[in-house]
Structure formats: structure tokens, C-alpha cells
Amino acid sequence: MMRHELIRIWAFALRNLLMASRNVFFVFELTFWPTVGVLSIGLMTRFLRLSPADTSFVLIGTVALSTVQVCQLDVAYAVLYDVWSKSMKHQFLAPIAVRHLTLGSWLVGIGRGLVVFALLAGLAWWAFDFNPLRIGGGALGVFLLGCFLTAWIVGVLVCALVMLFGTRAEASAWATVNLVLVLSGIYYPVSLLPGPVAAVASAIPLTYFLDAFRSHFGFASEFASPLARGFGLSAAYILAAHWGLRAALDRTRRSGLLLKMSE
Amino acid sequence: MLAIDAHDLAKTFRSGWPRRRETHALRGVSLTVQRGAIVGVLGPNGAGKTTLLSILTTLLVPDRGRATILGHDLAREPGAIRRRLNMASGNASFLWSLRVEEIIAFYGRLYGLGGRALAARVEELLGFAELGPHRRVPYNELSTGLKQRLALAKSLVNQPELLFLDEPTLGLDPDVAIRLRAQIAALRRQRGTTIVLTTHYMREAEELCDEIAFVKNGRLLARGSSEELKRAIKLGDVIALRVDAGGAAALAGLPGILRTTAEDGRVELTVDSAQKRLGEVLQRLHESGAVVRDLEVREPQLEDVFIELAK
Ligand SMILES: Nc1ncnc2c1ncn2[C@@H]1O[C@H](COP(=O)(O)OP(=O)(O)OP(=O)(O)O)[C@@H](O)[C@H]1O
Ligand SMILES: [Mg+2]
Questions:
Q1: Contact B60/A at CB under 8 A
Q2: Residue of B60, B142, B165 for testing the chain A interface, max A β-carbons within 10 Å
Q3: B24 touches chain A (CB under 8 A)
Q4: pLDDT tops 80 at residue B19
């Protein structure tokens, strides 16, 4: 039984890997845009003559943004590929659950996210003298896990939106993550946000992961036990997002959209 | 033993916003299918055939009605049902840059197949569907015929006991279609697979199906073997003659003649039974001195049944 479970997850992981390896534009996703992001933000810090500390604060945000985005896209692709190729019904004809789809694609997203993170960390070190790796493996691992969990949540939500609204919701794959990232204080401390928005920010796990990560670079933590909150919220959202995706799938089975997306 | 036992299935699609449009795709269809049978679902475009198949394959939840598939309740045990059935449709589509063998393997994994068992199954299906030489071709470079064969191969990846085929030979040239039909027939012969298929090709239905269910406007209008349907619809046989002018007049008033058309010495008589009436017709013509130059007796085709029912 466990073996069947793993095979199904692997099926989706392998599919994303194969698709990614055959699309040249994915190279852009992986290298070009993230590099452009770090370079433009990094150069801006030079222009504004930010202190090394402030520069690292901003660059951490940019690197996190790209890492989350790339990982999240892989999860969204798990459903988007089927929408684009109109093959949705075949996989839901098989005895699978949504967790197989989201876990398999998430694993590939983690792999691609790590590549992007390594690339950008190297770039930030080489070009702007900021080395995010210097805090050591443990803290770094926790931060990356936080990024990937956030990406998973957003990716699953995008999948649910696409299930509910079809290709009309496609843009959410690229837009939603930006919303989350603005709210969780990529380029500024969340304490800067006006009251109600700050409340929203405090409901986003990435806020806490960024906070904890930055504390290793000498920035005072804005929250008590940020990691516990981050992981706690993540767990709750992951369950909720999967429940949402499952509900969206059930709805497509009732409305006939599952068939519409396959013809 | 029944593979499918469905009662009163109904489905209305609601679409459009803000003004909702309603399409009553199925209006209460009951259907039973014996294990090991091949049943054809026929009917005009938009009759509800695909909707019916989608409900039976758990892809669509009906508004009303219930069904037992391979002994499992459709509403309560969809997982158990999905393990044991599969479907291929004529307009199937898969991920564009995956290769033939990768597509079969992907779906194989979704049914829990892995390792050597998966490799062996993929080989077997590539052989069965004659896709071996194309195994490394990406999906978007396949011809229609190859795509259809891939869809059939994919639908066999879990060795289904119950197989649904929605217009499996759509858009195929006659040669490829004949081969595909032979493969479908072989499935039942070799593995006892129960098959439910839809088609717009009457020859296909006659050749493959033990029974035909005729659906129109979301309702089941008739069901039976092709022969039974022809008899039930009472279309009558056609006696087509070429006779010298004036011959048709001699036939007026003969019993059993349902319809007569005469034109340039060609006479077509639709009679209740050619076997019963042919002798009398020829005798009449002979007595009147008409010379019969050509004679043909036609039984009604399934196509005629279709046209009659679809009216
Ligand atoms: N997913 C859907 N959403 C909305 N309406 C649908 C959907 N699927 C089918 N319909 C409508 O339901 C009716 C029955 O369609 P269905 O596809 O079952 O017909 P069919 O018998 O398979 O026709 P064809 O021979 O053309 O394949 C049609 O009017 C169709 O437009
Ligand atoms: Mg159809």
C-alpha cells in the first residue's frame, strides 16, 4: 500500500521533470528572471547607498521571492499541464488523490527551488558581497523549508482556483505568489504595514520564516517564537488548501467542468 | 452477473452567467450490461452518450439515479470502481511533449504499477497497439491513428474488467479502423473484458456489439441486438425491381405493401416481409406481362433503424 502511494507520487514528480526538461522557457524561469530580480534590486541598493545590513535585508527578500515562486509554479503546473493539454479527465479516472499530484510536483519544485536559491546566493555573494550561506546549514535548511511550505500552500491554492475557473484562473499561477510576498514583507519589516494589512501579514507563514532568517543577520525579531508560528500556520494551511483542492475537484465532477477541461 | 446496473440516471448541465442556460443531457436512463458483453450506445449528436459514459466512469456526478458498477455503488465507492475500469475516447489528448512510452507509464503508475511490472505492462501494450516503432515519439507529433491507438493502449494499462470507448474510431481511415475494431473484439475474446462503446459508424456497431442501446434527447429509446431492433422498428424489407413500363400499376392492391415508389421503370416496394410477399409480387408482374429485368431484396440496415429512431 505504502509502495503504491509512493509510486503515484513519483508519477507526478517524473511527469513534471520530463516536461520541464523539454521546455527551453523553463530555463528562463530558473535562471533568467531570478537573476534579473537580484541584479536589479542589488543595483538599486548600491544607488541608494544602503548599508551592508540593509542590503542583506532586501536581498534576502528577493532571493526568497524567486525561490518560492519557482517552487510554487511546479505545483501549479501539475494542474495547468492538464488544462493546457486537455487531458484532465484521464488522471482523475485513475484511483488517485489530490495529495499524490501536489506532493509529486512539490518535490520537483523543491529541487528547482534549491537550484534557484543556490544560483542567487552565489550571485548575491559575488556581485553584492552578501553571503546568505554564512549562517550555517541548520538555520538555512529551516528557512528553505519555510519557503517551500509557503510555495506548496500557494501552489495548491492556485490548483484549486484553476479547477474552479478553468483557464480564466491561469494568471493566478504568476500573480498570487506576488500578493503573498508583498504582504509578508519582502523588502521591508512588516511593522511598516498599516494595521489591518499587518494583521493579514501575521497570518502568512512566510512572514515568520523571513523574520527568523533575518534574525541570524542581526535584525531584531518582530515576533516571539517565529518558527513555531510559521510551521504551525503552514501545517494548518496545507491541510486547508488540500481540502479546498479536493472540494474544487468534487465540484468539477458535479458541474461537468472536469469534462469541459478535457475536450 | 451484471457489470453495470444503472437506474434512472439524470444530469442537467448549468452554464452561463449571469443568465443561466440549462441543458438536460440525461433525463432518466436505466441500463444493465452483462459481464463479458459488448454494448453499443448509439444516438444522434448531443443525445447524451458521452454524458452517460462519464457518469458510469465516475467523471461526472449524476443529479439523480443510482448505479452499481462491478458490484460497487457508484456514489459510495468510486475509488474501488476506478481501479477496475478504464476509458478511451476518440478525442483523447495527452501532454504534448511526453513520449508514447512515457504516457503509458505515467498512467500505469497512477494505478500503482511500478518497477518490472510496469515495464512489462508498457511493453505488452506497445506491442498490442502496434506502437513499438513510435515509442519515443512525442505526443504532439503523432498522427490521428497513432493517437487513437495510444488512447486505447492507455485505457488497458490497469487491465480493466470494464472498458468504456467513446467513439474509438473517430477520424480513422477505414484500414486503421478495421484493425482497431479487431483489437477491441480480441479484448473481449481473450480477456472477457466487458465493453461499452459509442459510435456513429453503424457497421462498427453491427460488427462489434451484442446489444445496442439507442439514446435520444437524454432518454433510452430502444435496446436489443441489431436484428431485434430492426424487427421492433418494423421498417420492412425493400424489393427493388427494374421492369418494363407499366409494371408498377399491376401491383396496386397487393396485401403487405407498405410503400411504393416508381420512376423510369425502377420500382421500389417496401413490404412487411420480403420472404412472404416476393412470390405474389412476381406472379402479379408475370400475369400482367411485365418483364422483370433486375431484382434485389434489401433488408433494413441499422442505419435505417438509426434514422427512423432519430426522427
Ligand atoms: N461539460 C458539459 N457542460 C455543459 N454542457 C454539456 C457538457 N457536456 C455535454 N453537455 C451538453 O449535454 C448534451 C449532451 O451531450 P453529450 O456530449 O452527452 O452528447 P453525445 O451523445 O455524446 O453527442 P456526440 O454524438 O456529439 O458526441 C449536449 O447538449 C451538450 O452540449
Ligand atoms: Mg459524445
A1: yes
A2: B60
A3: no
A4: yes
pLDDT at residue A172, as a whole number: 80
Closest in B60, B83, B106 to A95, CB measured: B83
Pair (B117, B172) in one structural domain: yes
Helices (H), B63-168: 78-84, 100-110, 115-128, 144-155
- Considering the domain architecture, whether residues B219 and B273 belong to the same structural domain is answered as no
- B167 three-state secondary structure: coil
Tell me how far apart the alpha carbons of residues B52 and B50 are, in angstroms, rounded to a whole number.
Answer: 5
Nearest ligand (C-alpha, residue B11): 1
CATH number at residue B106: 3.40.50.300
Q: What's residue B199's pLDDT?
A: 92
Q: Are B35 and B76 found together in one domain?
A: yes
Please say which residue of B176, B196, B230 terminates a domain: B230
Beta-carbon neighbour count of residue B152 at 10 Å?
A: 23
Between B98 and A218, the more confident residue is: B98
**pLDDT for B26-50, tens place per residue?**
999 999 999 999 999 999 999 999 9
Say yes or no: B85 and B148 in one domain: yes
Closest-CA residue to B124 (of B148, B97, B101): B101
Judgement on whether residues B145 and B278 belong to the same structural domain of the protein? no
Domain ranges of chain A: 2-260
Please indicate whether residue B49, judged by its CB atom, sits closer than 6 Å to ligand 1. yes
Percentage, residues of chain B above pLDDT 90: 59
B183 CA from centroid of ligand 1 (Å) = 28
pLDDT range class, residue B246, cuts 50, 70, 90: low
A259/B109 touch (CB, cutoff 8 Å), yes or no: no
Decide if B107 touches A, using CB distance below 8 A. Answer: yes
Are B296 and B175 found together in one domain? no
CA distance B95 to B261: 55
Which atom of ligand 1 has the smallest separation from the CA of B215?
21
Q: What residue numbers bound the domain in which B241 lies?
A: 235-310
Report residue A14's pLDDT band, with 50, 70 and 90 as the boundaries.
Answer: very high
- Give the orientation angle of helix B100-110 with respect to helix B144-155, to 10 degrees: 20
- List the grid coordinates of B128: 498490442
Strand B194-198 and strand B38-42: the pairing is parallel
Decide which of B206, B230, B254 is a domain's last residue: B230
Q: What is the DSSP string of A132-175?
A: GGGG-HHHHHHHHHHHHHHHHHHHHHHHHHHHHHGGGGTTHHHH
* B245 band by pLDDT with thresholds 50, 70 and 90: low
pLDDT value at A249 more than 90: yes
Number of domains in chain B: 2
In terms of pTM, does the model score above 0.80?
Answer: yes
Sort out which chain B residues have CB atoms less than 8 A from A263's CB and list them. 91
